[in-house]
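Tokens for SAM domain-containing protein. Go.
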Amino acid sequence: MSSNVSCNPLPTVKEVEGWDIEKLNRFLKKELQDIDKYIDILKDEIVDGDVFLELSRDDLITKLPLGPAKKIERLIKEIRGDNQEKGIEELNEGLEVIQLQMDESRKIKRRIVKSVTSHSIFFFITEFDDTVKNSLEAEPPSINAKPRNFSVDQNNHPILNGRPLNCTGPPITIYNKAFYQFLENFENVDLDISPDIFEWVTDIIRVATDFHDEKDERLHKIRDILSKKWTIELIEYGTNKRGKDRNCDGVFTTKVNKYTAYIGFIEGKNEIGSGGCDPSIQGALYYRDYWSQNSAQLIRNCCCIPSFIIIVAGPWFCVLGAVFLNRVVVQPLTDIIPFTVNLRNDKQVKRIARIFQALDLAFEDLIFYYQGLDLVPSDRRFFPYVQQVGSGDNAFSFTYINELLDDCTRTIWKAKRDDNNNLIVVKFTHKYNVKAHLICEKKNYAPKLLYYSDDEEAKRLGGYKIIIMEYVDCISLGQKLMRDEIKTKNNIYDNVRNAIKLLHDENLVFADLRVPNILVVDTSEFQQAMLVDFDWCGIHNVDRYPASMNEELPWPPGAIPCALLQKDHDLYWLDKLEKKLLKYTKTIPTLVKGSYISQSSKGFASGSLIKSSGISQSSTASGSGS
């Protein structure tokens, strides 16, 4: 680890608590601009975010704790020559802990700022302002979209467009209705298409498939055709170092009082490969830069400024959507669609016509949205638009507070009900096993489920279901193990085993029974366990694991992407869980044919579950502040 740290030491949490807002702002905007220097220090020694905040400058140099090298060294020393198998198991256990710590360290930069500010809204605004500032100082998109330039900028001021995958943003369909309406209309083969679109759709197909000497010639002809339906402007902004004004290939606008809102952008290339950059990246940069201008400040401070981006490259078209959260998020709404079709094939021609009909309806939605804006700055712009669920007496509204995960692809929020101020968890997910959650909830083995979407509502959110449950004030078993906070008196294993027994009785497999998905609830005497994250849960030997499994983790034998779910896989995790918790109990483990059973255990032996008596009387129901 480097010892030539020349920066001022990071403050402790106690020091920050005494700061006023001005000093806090100054620290975040200036002193943290070189935070990557601190992150470099962490590459060799992985630390917990809270621990890191407490370190002085000298500690950073000489006493950085929780390093994986030290943990591995300790584990190796414990390995006995006459017990190699046990040593390997312990080493694997240690590597799992290290994996958890590495996951924590990858988020250290966000945690430092969030811990210092103690409010995620302030964190969002800080990154939002950073994005705007960088945009105003940036080179034109025609330069910054070059692969080498863009890849460098993604490290410091990312656009969340999936390049690379760790720069993937949350689903834009949960931030504005226009995006899922576009998707629904485009995919509807029975969509009514207005006659005026049919009048010129063959013209745009011919222009798209023709060869053109220059990009400007191609885009000029495309704009002429689209202008029959929409008003398209060439709006210049800023001035680059060569004195040439910047503009994309076309802008669709509407008015909000006297201010201009951008509902769509066109960016194109004469052919695929021409221009030296990806037009979708250049279009994303234009979206960011147009909306970052001072003239757009009033609108961008009161909403997530949704826009569509139309990409043209020769005869290939693609439609993307964009929102401006703490960072710009851009996602494709269509595949790259070829206009090289047979004009006698009505099915192919109608599909192209549906693109423009769906866009027309989406533009109407955005015009209605922008013209109805109350031009008052709002922090709500950082959160999904869904802030009320249910109907009739069961309806309730809520206010988002902060993210619960530092992972933009997994949208899980802490929120507060407006009617009773109870804390809740709001989750958006493609798949969720409500039946399994309810089975566990009945025995207090899962937080209380308050609301879940039906299939129709999921369609209106671009395929995402809303899952709302009570917030439980606790941390995961993984975090408890890292902090060595497991009590001698605990019901953790019994609770988890009983929950799995209930699921297996219904022919269900939990599947992802790793320690991050087990909550530990502290009571005055015992520690209880709850299961969370029923996304993977499914029917034994029928449903399958997702394709996106992290194959670097030590999954059960046979648990691979898209493999069938098996009850034995849950038993594998239960066996590992019992071994993890043995050192915290006073019982003596007994070896039974490849499986440990403590004298206090009731039901895990030789790969089978035995009926248990349920949760102990000392368990507590989940709920706000539990």
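The chain has three domains: 13-118, 138-371, 388-609.
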